[in-house]
Amino acid sequence: MKLGRRNFLKLAGAAAAGAAATACSAAPPAQAPSSAPGTSLPPSTSATPPSGPPDWAALREKVSLLLPGDSGYDNAKRVFNPAFDDLKPAAIAKCAKPEDVQAAVEAAARRVPIAARGGGHSYAGYSVPDGGLMIDLGGMSSVDVQGDRVVIGAGAKLKDVYAILGGAGRCLPAGSCPSVGIAGLTLGGGIGVLARKYGLTCDHLVSAQVVTADGVLRTASADSEPELFWALRGGGGGNFGVVTSFTFRTDPSPSVVSVFSLNFPAGSANDVLAEWQRWLPEAPPELWANVVLSGGSPVGARVSGCHVGDSASLGRELDKLTGKVRGTRTVKQLDYLGAMKYFSGSESRQSFVASSRILGEVTDPAKLTSILDGRRGMDLLVDGLGGAVADIAPDATAFWHRKAIGSVQIYSRADTRNRSVATDSVAEVVTGLGLGGGYVNYIDPALPDWMTAYYGDNAARLKKVAKTYDPEKVFGFAQAVTPA
Fold this sequence. Notes:
By secondary structure, this protein is an alpha+beta fold. The chain is about 25% helix and about 20% strand. The longest helix has 15 residues.
């Protein structure tokens, strides 16, 4: 079964990437001199910012560089959402190795904005710095399975990660959109369809290679740069440095994953959401599910998900939901790779507006359904959390929303004709929901008090990490974590 982008979003609540990225060769790159584990980053630049634009000609001698007017420039700057096609980087550095990233950072630091681009799915277009330097990591996309570990380059996309891991009999919980980059997904946490069983993507991170603001390539792990390592697990894409590769711990891939879809009759959205909120937290962690509310009159409802196990055991769990609210049921029993492909959608670009909130506790369903009444083309996708996600303390990594029932994505189609209306409508819904929090991988420039919404009580610690590793905001952007 192949799903279009919108149907895919309804099915799986795709995890989208943030502004940052990752990349590298099949094996971990040789590490440049690094600061001692746990020590602060020494000041690397003078108090006086350098004057004038970067020397693009000099950088071009070291890195493949595209400037406006060059062949391939217009295509290289394009990201998933066409809404950002008008943004125009001053230059695009197409990096193939960590040294390329180092050269790019050193050339542009404090002269123009710098942003890394992995999958290009930043909901706010932050990976396309208007008038700045885009560090394109698409050439650093290797996936190297090494026993129970995998080293993944920052430019790798989920479709390739899944294909190679599945072929090796290994599993890494991640998102479902095939063209999302592993980098932004991981750096924002990494909610996916196997999260309740295996945890977030960032929970499997063992180490990362990172080019920091001073141009140094560092290893961030539990034993080396531990505060940076903590921040990279949920602290958001685009912050603290440019990751060039990740090393993850993997699990044996499950032999059987059963997928399902439940459709419910018109007028049952309140009952469906009420029962889903009761049912999922009580379900075994092997079960993951979302509930999708589709705007209109009346509001539509469906539940989709997967179960690490056979269809018979899945059926018994679904009976606990559909015994209270009747719906039509579709179930398929697949292998791990087949299940990941089932949730994959089209890689075609799509214009949309989106935001998010967090379902922290059981909520009156009418608060969510009433705000969608009559809003055709808008969906609320509530992706389940709990299970292994909640087994980790909120302050153990930068991902704060460990104890939530689920994340809520507000998604609306938008093109050049109705984008302003769609943006206003999404903002109205976000306000009307009455929910707090937000998922940084569904980053929203209009989200009030976004620092607290994304990071909760972890915000203060993240600011300290920024002060250590990027005190002069070399990687600053509109919603960057800035020094305390």
